[in-house]
Amino acid sequence: MSYKIVADSSADKINISGVATAIAPLKIITNEREFIDDENLNTDEMVAYLKGYSGKSSTACPGVNDWLTSFGESENIFCITISSNLSGSFNSACLAASEYETLHPNRNVFVIDSLSTGGEMQLIIERLEELILSGIAFDEICKKITEYQQNTGLLFMLQSLKNLANNGRVSHAVAKISGILGIRIIGLASDEGRLDITDKSRGDKKALASIIERMKIAGCKNGKIRISHCQNKEFAEALKTEFEKAFNTTDIKIQATGGLCSFYAESGGIIIGFEK
Ligand code: X90
Asked: With a cut of 50, which residues of the chain have pLDDT below it?
């Protein structure tokens, strides 16, 4: 039986090697250019271009055909998407899955709504790899991964909410606060998979303390933590050091955000997936 894990590109880079993977790209669109969020995208160049661009910009989720391409010819597929309350990605993945299963009656696709993005998707992907390699049945994996999702969370820290507000994902009133110099907006993915803003901190030092406190309240335990940053490696490293102390864990990885998360998190933004 062949297995494959596919995710949309909001998961950032996939770092597993024990199971086949594929990414369905989202797109970042301006009046002048279109960026496909795949392995050829130069994210830093895109972020630099967007800084100097003042026109309209938006994003588009993978279409049914993008998902079908990512499925390839695998027999058992786990397909994981960004929150269905932020994007149409889950919806088009479900359409692709039922088309694929109709076309190939002996194959299975399980579509997972992460109700999140970035590092929390990475945790779900890593857990799927473990479950697949353990050799248990497809249905068992589906059950266990759904349970696992109860034990993961996502925290974000953003310095600008401009792109989120311009694309209707947060209110303009909330976005205004983030325009104040030095203000960091901190929040969690809510149970419904929406942005739940919890704290506003001034400067990195105070933000760091708020993040630790908020993650403690959210139930972060001594498990895995996956940090994605948009051009903010230094702060990500500082967080890693503090997390090691606060949560007594060493399983912490840092990577750069991909195209989609870079567009919405914007320069300086941090997205953290953690286990509870
Ligand atoms: O379908 C599309 O065009 C994609 C729309 C995505 C909209 C929001 C992406 C947010 C990414 C921001 C911080 C993390 C918040 C996660 C809360 C669930 C990054």
From this structure: none
